[in-house]
Amino acid sequence: MRARTGLSGVLWICLALVSPALAQQRGAAPASPKLVVAIVIDQFRYDYLTRFRSEYTGGLKRMLDEGANFTNARYRHYQTVTATGHSTFLSGATPAMSGIVGNEWWDRTTSRAVTSVFDSTTRLLGAEGTGASPRRLLQSTLGDELKISGKGGKVIGVSAKDRAAILPAGHSADAAYWFDGNSGNFVSSTYYFAALPGWVTDVNQGRPGDKYAGQKWLDHKLPAGGKPLYNELEASPYGNDLIQQFALRALRAEKLGTGPKIDVLTVSYSANDYVGHRYGPDSPEAHELSVTVDKLVGDLLKAAEAQAGAGNVIAVLTADHGVAPLPEENQKRRMPGGRFDAKAVQAAVESALQAKFGGAHWVAYASEAGIYLNPQTAADPAEAELVAANVVRGFPHVSRVYTHTQLAGGQVAADELGASLRDGFNPARSGSVLFLLEPYWIFGATGTSHGTPYGYDTHVPVLFWGARVKPGGYHANVAPNDIAPTLATILGVETPSGSVGRVLSEMLK
After folding, report:
1. What percent of the chain is modeled with pLDDT above 70?
2. Active-site residue among 5, 50, 80, 82?
3. Which domain does 408 fall in, by range?
C-alpha cells in the first residue's frame, strides 16, 4: 500500500508541474496585467534613442534592454502635431477616423476656432475658465474598451497639456489632469466630476510649481515666481519633474494596479516639446531633456511595479511626433530648408479671391489643418478652393497642394505623401486648402517646428515592456497606430473602434 501511495504522490507532482505548460500549449490565456502604463514623450525623435543611448541609465535603458524595440515606427498621417499623435496613441485611429485633424481647427458649425479638446459646456476645476473634454474625439480608446468589457478599473491621464492628458485617456476616463500656467495648479474639468479629489486639492495647496523658483539648468535660470515661473517651468527639465511628481501621487492616491480590474495610467512628458521648439533637436538643451526624462521614466516604472507587483505591469512608450532641425543648422550642413511665411500666403489668397469674385474676408482661419475659406454666394466653393490652391502653388518651396474637394474625392497622388494627406483629412473638419512644404522648410520666424510627413517628424520610438512582451529589436515597418490593437489583444478586449493598426504579434509571448 505504501509503495502504491508513494508512486501516486510522484505522479500527482509530475502532473502538477506539467499541467501549466500543457495549458499554455493548448492556448489558455496568460494572466492579464493589472496596470497599463502608457507613456508619451512629447517631441521625441527616434534618433534620440540612438544618439544618447550610452547615457541612458533609467527607464529608456530598461525598456531597450528588457523590452521590445520597434526601430522603424512612423506615423501614417500628415499633420504630425501634439493632438493628432496623442489621439492616435491609444485609439489606433488616423485623423481621418478620429476627427482630431490638428491642435486647432475652424469649426464650421459655430464659425469659430476650436482646440481639439475645447468644450464650452464644461468648466475648469482648480482654476478659472472654460474646461475641456474628449468629446471631439470620434472614436474609442483602449481605456474605453476596457470599461465597456467590464475588465476596466480606473483610467487616468496626466500631462502639462490638456490635450495630452485628455485624448489618450478617452471618453470613459475617470480623470484627466494638466498643469495650468495661470494659476500654478493642476486642473481638470467638470466633464469628469463636480469637484477635484481631495488628494489633488492637497497637491495644489502645496503650490507644486513654486519649489522650482530660481532653479538652474545648463545656462538657464527659472524666474522667481508667479506666471513667469509657471510658463517658463514648462520649457525646462523641471517641467517634466512636475508632471512626474503628480503622476506618482496619482498612482499612490488612486491605488492603481492594486484592484481586481485593469487600471490605465497615461503620462505625457511635455517639456521636451517646449524645449525642442525653442532650441532645436541638435541643441544641448534637447540633449539634456532626453537624458533627464530617461531617469523619470525609470522611476515611474519602478513605482508602478512596486505597487502592482512584479509581472503585473505592461508599459508602452512612444512620441507624438518628431521635429525638424533648425534651418540655420541645416544651412551649416549644406542641407536644404528654410523659413516659410504663412501669413504672406494667406494674404495672397485673400487678395486673389477678392480680385476674382469680389467680397471680403475670404480667409476665415489657417492652421496645420489647412486654410479655411468662408463660404460666399459670389463663388462656388470648389471654384474658390481652386483659385486659392493655385495661389499657394505659386509660392516657392511648396511641394503639394490639394483642395477639400479633391481630398474628399480621393484625388491624391498614389504615393506615401498622398496617403499621408488622405489619412490626415476629415471632410467635416479639415481646411478648404491643404498644402505641404518641401523637406526641411518650416513655418515660423524663430525656433523650429514639426507637422510634416517627412521622417524627421514621423519616425518615433515604440517600446513595449513588461508582461507578455518578448524582448528584442524588431525592424519591420510599423506605425504607432499598432499600439492600441496590440494592447487590446494582450488585455483581451475589443480593438478601439477606429483603429487602422495591426497587432504586433511578433513580440507577444
Report:
1. 94
2. 82
3. 338-443
